[in-house]
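Histidine phosphatase family protein
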Amino acid sequence: MVTKKIYLIRHGQTDYNLKGVVQGSGIDAPLNQNGRDQARAFFEAYKEVPFEKIFYTGLQRTKQSVEGFLNLGLPHEGVPDLNEISWGKYEGLPMTPEENQYYLHMLERWSSGDLEYAIEGGESPIIVAKRLRRGINYILSQPEKLVLVCMHGRAMRVLLSVLLGYDLRYMDVFRHQNLGLYLLHQRAEGSFWLEKYNCGAHFNQQK
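Tokens:
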């Protein structure tokens, strides 16, 4: 028996995404035109799904990504505990070759099991997982059974690892794209299984 069904999506494109600039939780960038088009494509494909409530983070790019559903008058709520990881002093900086090398080094530290490691001034995967558990437990405590949740790339990887029981060292197996969809089902005993993985089929339905 399924107790909850969660449609989990990443926000649409921002100019920071487009230019390869680090966002994180400290940059509250809006969607650009392409991001709005991506959000519209997702809405057109899934507007008939009888969502009972919409959740987004404390950053405007996630709320803007589900605006079509909010305009239908569906109940909705921001959950700041689902915010993106903080990239500390690197937020707002372009991804230069030097910065990219540091980023790859950090990913290597994480995949080797050093999950307490964080960029200077930022959050570690362990800290993010704790925060996300708090956020998702709040959502799971709500009475609604069919919900849409809009989040951020790295945070989604951590959350999917938490929900599906993956070691955080392997979080990068969960790929993401702007407005890509993961569809999760919760079983009666509380565990989750995945029906859709980073699905972008809705982009192919555009006229």
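The chain is about 35% helix and 20% strand.
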